[in-house]
# Entry
Amino acid sequence: MGAGWRGRSGPTRQELQKQESRSRILAAAKEVLGETPYAAMRVEDVIARAGVSRATFYKYFDSKFAIGRELHGEFGPRLSAIYDLLLAHNDPTEADLIDWIKRVVDFYRQEKDLIVTFAHMLAIEPLFHPMMIDIIRETEERWASRIPAFRVPGSNAPDAMRARIESRLLLRQLNDFCYEVAMFDWSIDVTEGCRIMAGYFRGFFERYRLEGAAL
# Structure
């Protein structure tokens, strides 16, 4: 080996500084969003909280939507992991579904600030809507590997269109239910609410079980 060769055992100091600056900006954005609605948040608020220059901020993000998109990119895999707990069961019982839905509600409670932020982004950022649709589509595709009914929406089966509509509405109902309980402290018997939501899932499973199993 030449005398000038140096092995790379890890990131350079400059790379570490870049990672640290970027992480500091995202952490500051989370803090600001815990106090201020997304629509009212300004880039200047994040810059001040992060203690970085405008030049440093714009080196990594070109807008506050870019921050929101990045936060959602980090959030998505954690949401998918909670959703995919359903896949521990090939044929979830009502009790399995109730327990799973409660865990999704708990996740929404833990991530309240971010979920409110994403709801605001959905209302005012047109480019955010396709990202949310992608989450639903990817969830359906993953669930299709274990749950026969979810194979139907993405197929050419006779009931594919109806199943596609029902699947989309079902996942939106789950989101709306968890949002209402977690964000607004909906004064209901949560277990009973989860039981009703579980009934919607069981109904979907039953309607498309045979058609999905044949695919």
Notes: The chain has a mean pLDDT of 92.
